[in-house]
């Protein structure tokens, strides 16, 4: 029998499924629940156990990990008679790896404490590839002792793992991350259209740019998306639109100006309004192409 903590995993989407599978590979017992039957079948095929409800998944778990799209989803699975807080045992550790508002994380930690349940907010960056390769950047908020207890689990999922402060701090850092990523993708997209309209070989140009100061993880991860106009979702425009709402609202609350971020948030929203919300966020390229009258691959 394994001495490792038993894990319940709630939310098996593009990111959640490979992350749960990495825990199974690391020797953890994982019981999962999600709304999609095919995702439960995938978990079972990987060696996990499929649960039929949140209650079934979490009742005997030492650690509960959630990975769902937004604050309303976290609230839906956490609260109420069928939620996590109603069925998790006292002393369990709830690690929410969703990207949500900082205030939602603070509120969840307070509500969970009343039930004797510990909480960390631990959103991630790295996209689907980072989840598959277990090299995610994980930014946590909560108590040091809970972070220390969670660290071996987090090390099976990511490479850069940092406690950023109290409850909600992880979500604040994730919001900043999404701001940087969106602005970076937009800049790369504008460069791609500029290069192509100038008649420069795009592959050669992106290779040399990636080796200089303009190089970035975004450019490395997304250059093939740009070149091939491959916008199969690793991280959907819909989700980045949600995240840009989080960061602009949070910045307004603390009085931080986001002149470029606010513009890019509008461009993300525009792309979504044009029906591209289900595409990868590298599809910001499509918006630049439309503005430039450059419709290759659109």
Structural class of the helices, strands and pairings?
A: alpha/beta
Strand content: 5-15%
Helix content: 40-55%
How do the strands of the widest beta sheet line up side by side? 3-2-1-4-5-6
Order of helices and strands: EHEHEHEHHEHEEHEHEHHHHHH
Please compute the radius of gyration using only Cα atoms: 20 Å
User: How many distinct beta strands?
Assistant: 9
Largest sheet: 6 strands, parallel
Taken from the alpha-carbon principal axes, the silhouette is globular
Low-confidence spans: pLDDT under 50, at least 5 residues? none
Mean pLDDT: 96
Q: Give the termini separation.
A: 54 Å
Number of helices in the DSSP assignment: 14
Features:
6-stranded parallel beta sheet, about 300 residues, alpha/beta, 3-stranded mixed beta sheet
